[in-house]
Design brief:
The complex is a heterodimer of chains A (159) and B (278). Chain A has 159 residues and is of the alpha+beta class. Helices cover 36% and strands 34% of the residues of chain A. Chain A is built from 5 helices and 9 strands. In chain A, helix 2 runs antiparallel to helix 3. Chain B is an alpha/beta fold and 278 residues long. Chain B folds into 2 domains: 6-193, Spore Coat Polysaccharide Biosynthesis Protein SpsA, Chain A (Alpha-Beta Complex), CATH 3.90.550; 199-272, Ubiquitin-like (UB roll) (Roll), CATH 3.10.20.30. In chain B, a hairpin with a 6-residue loop joins strand 7 and strand 8 (132-139). The chains are: A alpha+beta (159), B alpha/beta (278).
Amino acid sequence: MRFRFTQSVIDTEGARRELQDLGAGGYVSFEGWVRDQNEGQEVTRLEYEAFQELAVKEGDRIVAEALQRFPVKHALCIHRVGSLQLGEMAVWVGVSSPHRGEAFDACRFIIDEVKHRVPIWKKEHYRSGDSGWVNCERCAAEPQHSQAEHRHRAASNPK
Amino acid sequence: MNPAAIYGLILAGGSSSRMHRDKASLQYRGKTQLDRAVELARRHVSKTFVSVRADQTLDPARAQYPMIVDSVDGRGPIVGIRSALAAHPKAAWLVLACDLPFLSNAAIEALLRARDPKTLATAYTSAHDGLPEPLCAIWEPAAAPVLAEYQAGGGECPRKFLIRHSARLLDPVDPRALDNVNTPEEYAEATATLEKSAPMPLKIQYYALMREQAGRSEETLETSAATPADLYAELAARYGFTLSREQLKVAVNSEFSDWSRKLAANDAVVFIPPVAGG
């Protein structure tokens, strides 16, 4: 299983060990952290929720695609669910590879596809007392904008 | 002031002249249309009555239910509606004709949600001609004197009445929902259609915004929805989902699916709002 969820703090050391390989000349990882603001609103905490049965299948497919597309050794993605505080790690991606270029490419590919395809939802709680499901609430008000936004990666909102 | 409580009124006093049989006694899926209509209304209102002519009160099919006997003179369905308004002057009435075999729970829910008690009635418009459908409608207590005046002036048609008076009108959720059955040919066609789309149990799981708007994380329900698209229309009418179907994906049995896939009994369906992982 190359994609999994956890309810608790992501064990990056353990995850990194799963990627070790004597044929790998290096390893690249990406950590997504909970940021204190989004689109002008001050964020106080986040909740992640996933449709896990399908999300694990889709996440596994993404990592398998990365392994097929790029000549890397191993890849793994771990996503947190539940309530997270500011600064906590929401997602971790790691790739080990004979050469660094492919490791960077595969890592980028995995995080981009995960954000785009895996059924995970994020509820932001704001300083103002409001809260909202990211990508859902604004779309409901402006359905004409939603199409382009969801079909393509949210490049304007990188972690 | 709170809006008037709503009672159900099933109109079963018609002459069924084109059918050559009492329309209330026609069976669909093994139940008479009268029983189906009463059952449907009872899911939504606390009391339901059957509207009958004076010469129908001994009919056992009707007499098993509380009845409201026509108490005013005149012709047509307005007489039944006025008699109900006279019998319980403080109640509003969910009026349902007895020849609407495709009428669904979802259609009644949407009608009740759209109700505007400041008008004389809340009604669907016809999918065929866009005109109001007075016999699947909520009639408010304030309609009583206006209906009386209309009949005194020779009016008989509740549809014309709604065109001329203040009514809240809404478009039908499902264009077939209000198709009525008047002839033996229409009856044969309706029974065949209903047999084909017999209701089946589906399991629906809700996540994130959908869970909050549905007020639950899962449910099993009996539905005639043939595809995920039909099911979403039914549930969106029930729960008032803010996202349109075009904004969602759908999964059946934990795998992404087409909206037009044919659903089977016990399928597990999940509507997937825009995702936001990472």
